[in-house]
Design brief:
heterodimer, A: Rossmann fold, 2 domains, seven-stranded mixed sheet, five-stranded parallel sheet, globular, B: mainly alpha, ABC transporter involved in vitamin B12 uptake, BtuC, two-stranded antiparallel sheet, 11 helices
């Protein structure tokens, strides 16, 4: 008798989870921790997109329900929440993760489970180089980003003595290596290549070393939490040379960590052409601004990613990750960031990295 | 090798070391008196960084003060008071109820306290990186030519002066006052001290408060100097300060300062002249070497085997 009761219970529960008119999608990234500023961009973008899609009737009549999953940019935590998303939340697709070091291990879990994962922000080249089927991205790659930065350093700034620094993380070091490789091809050899420790705030010894090496430009692969203090200490020690970094400092928090607007002068970064200026997205940008939120950095990337997931499910009429990924690799999708299409590895067919400049009013603009 | 650069690295190392030393005081004093490591100490320091930012925001934005020295002094006093309160609460909640139980119990409760503080700050102040505007950004003192110089900022001078001043005051309290005598008596033999009429519970509380106060001083200085912090800074800094305390000889007050300075200088010099990637490896290798030849640290008293 007991067995039958249990049997019924299990089936009733299974029935519930399948019969619901919702599609569960995970949003995985650093919602807490030192990199929560990026988690906010990720969540704001995805949530707004899901609301907009639901308002228009959802995906084939089914409503999207987002599941927030926090990896705090830690690879270990990323693996455990990836398992949780699949096993207990039973999501059918994942938007995220954000940090490349988290996306790397987590993507293998999604691929094993046949769940579609699209990252709006992980730029490390290796993510799509491992032959994983269900993994795509809506951002560029660090080798493209590094190439643009190296061109800028060598051709525009005419830098001869460049120091290449990184934060020893998958993203930071990967980006620094990509930049260094292309810079070497252009005939400039770095005068210093070193890694600093994430979480530390005192880089004065390193800055003094940069001074003693007479560098005329500094390239840093890493995030704003370290880039900020590094720039500040450079300026305080009178080292006013250009400071170039990647998409890891695309946040107004960079100004905060650098100790104020006066320190961010002569700071450059590579990032995709400002999505806020793309015509297709003007209405969405207005919606965000009406809510008092500036859709900076990866916000619109996340919005676009949600659109891509929804469009694929709508057109391919399935939630199976392998079929969705296959559909996306063959079709182009209209998003707030314009038309996006993918190659067989899951990378975008076109990349649009450009150089941005920070100004001493704490804003950045395309160069 | 350029002398100016070497001097500059010494200045960098000295500032960093002074801060490590100040935080190490908290570890070393608590260890000295109850023979346990206060794992929540790094987080007490983190709390003081937040309090500093709150104070500055209240003084400057709400009340509209502009006189920087007054803001600094008042911030220092208020932060010391509130951080001491946190230190006292940690002792009351995580240590006192477990006094007399086995040695590992308070250790675990201190780690728990550390997690509680981190999450409390994360929830109440948000997980995002915070910052304060730079209050002192006058022209640094520079010696040398235009290209090749040694510079000391006003903030660095302030850090070194305040750190050494606090150490001097602390040493005076421990060595020359009735309170200090009671502390030392409790350290040597808690039971005997209490038989002789010393309220040892109160003394232990006071030691926690003094430790928290010195972490508060460090917290104010670091926050003003580097301008940015988050709820997790207590971990990295705490580990470094703990290393400094062990290096100098845990339980010894001058040892904490010496350990801090050696650690700061070692990191700066290694990072500046060898390699930044491996500066932590070098710092910990140094610790291992010292502990091999002097197991109780540089200025620590050797453990006497009781028969």
């Amino acid at each position: 008798m007991k067995k039958i009761a249990l049997f019924c219970l299990v089936f009733a529960w299974l029935g519930l989870s399948f019969a619901g008119d919702i599609i569960k999608i995970g949003v995985a990234g650093p919602h807490t921790g030192a990199y929560a500023a990026f988690g906010e961009q990720l969540w704001r973008g995805s949530e707004q997109a899901a609301n907009d899609i639901n308002a228009k009737g959802g995906i084939n009549g089914k409503k999207i329900e987002l599941v927030k999953a926090d990896d705090a940019c830690e690879p270990k935590q990323a693996v455990s929440i990836a398992n949780r998303l699949i096993d207990s939340d039973e999501v059918v697709a994942v938007i995220g993760h954000f940090c490349s070091s988290s996306t790397m291990p987590a993507s293998e879990i999604y691929d094993d489970a046949g769940v579609l994962m699209i990252t709006p922000g992980s730029t490390n080249p290796k993510i799509t180089e491992r032959g994983l089927v269900t993994i795509l991205r809506t951002c560029g790659r660090d080798d493209q980003q590094g190439t643009v930065a190296a061109d800028f350093l060598v051709k525009t700034l005419k830098a001869k003595r460049v120091a290449v620094l990184h934060d020893k993380d998958t993203y930071g070091q990967g980006l620094a290596d990509a930049m260094k490789a292309h810079m070497n091809i252009l005939g400039v050899k770095e005068v210093l290549y070193e890694g600093l420790t994430r979480g530390e705030k005192d880089f004065n010894a390193l800055v003094t070393k940069l001074r003693s090496l007479n560098v005329d430009a500094v390239y840093f692969g890493g995030l704003h939490t370290e880039a900020g203090p590094l720039v500040r200490q450079m300026r305080e020690q009178g080292l006013n040379v250009p400071f170039i970094s990647g998409d890891g400092i695309v946040s107004e928090e960079f100004v905060l960590t650098a100790g104020g607007e006066q320190y961010v002068k002569n700071v450059y970064m590579t990032f995709g052409a400002d999505p806020r200026n793309i015509k297709a997205g003007q209405q969405v940008v207005e919606t965000f601004r009406r809510q008092g939120y500036e859709p900076e950095g990866y916000t619109l990337y996340s919005y676009a990613t949600m659109q891509v997931v929804a469009e694929a499910m709508k057109q391919a009429k399935t939630t199976d990750g392998i079929k969705l990924a296959k559909w996306l690799k063959q079709h182009a999708v209209n998003t707030v960031m314009g038309v996006k299409s993918w190659d067989n590895k899951g990378d975008l067919n076109t990349s649009d990295y450009v150089i941005y400049q920070w100004h001493d009013n704490g804003q950045y603009s395309e160069l | 090798m350029d002398w100016m650069i070497i001097l500059q690295q010494l200045v960098n190392g000295l500032t960093l070391g002074a801060i490590y030393g100040l935080i190490a005081v908290g570890y070393t004093m608590v260890y000295g008196i109850i023979g346990m490591i206060n794992f929540a100490h790094g987080d007490i320091y983190m709390v003081s960084a937040y309090l500093t930012a709150i104070c500055i925001a209240v003084f400057m934005s709400w009340w509209g003060w502009t006189f920087v020295p007054l803001i600094l002094v008042l911030t220092l006093i208020v932060v010391i008071l509130f951080t001491s309160l946190y230190g006292w609460v940690v002792e009351r909640v995580a240590y006192r109820p477990l006094r007399g139980s086995q040695r590992l119990a308070p250790l675990i409760s201190a780690i728990g306290m550390s997690l509680v503080l981190q999450n409390y700050v994360q929830i109440s102040q948000s997980a995002r990186t915070q910052g304060v505007p730079s209050l002192i950004s006058g022209h640094p003192l520079r010696i040398g030519s235009e290209q090749n110089f040694v510079q000391i900022t006003e903030m660095q001078i302030l850090i070194v002066i305040v750190a050494f001043l606090s150490m001097a005051v602390l040493s005076y309290i421990i060595q020359a006052t009735a309170l200090g005598r009671a502390c030392r008596a409790t350290q040597q033999d808690r039971v005997m001290a209490s038989i002789l009429g010393i309220n040892t519970d109160k003394i232990i509380s006071i030691v926690f408060i003094i430790g928290a106060a010195s972490a508060a001083v460090a917290g104010v200085l670091v926050t003003l100097n580097y301008g940015t912090f988050d709820f997790f800074i207590g971990f990295v800094t705490g580990i470094k300060a703990f290393t400094a305390a062990v290096l100098g000889g845990i339980g010894s007050l001058p040892g904490a300062m010496l350990g801090g300075l050696i650690l700061g200088l070692a990191e700066s010099l290694f990072s500046g002249f060898v390699n930044t990637d491996y500066k932590d490896v070098f710092a910990f290798a140094l610790l291992v070497l010292v502990l091999i030849f002097r197991p109780s640290g540089l200025l620590g008293k050797p453990e006497v085997e009781k028969v």
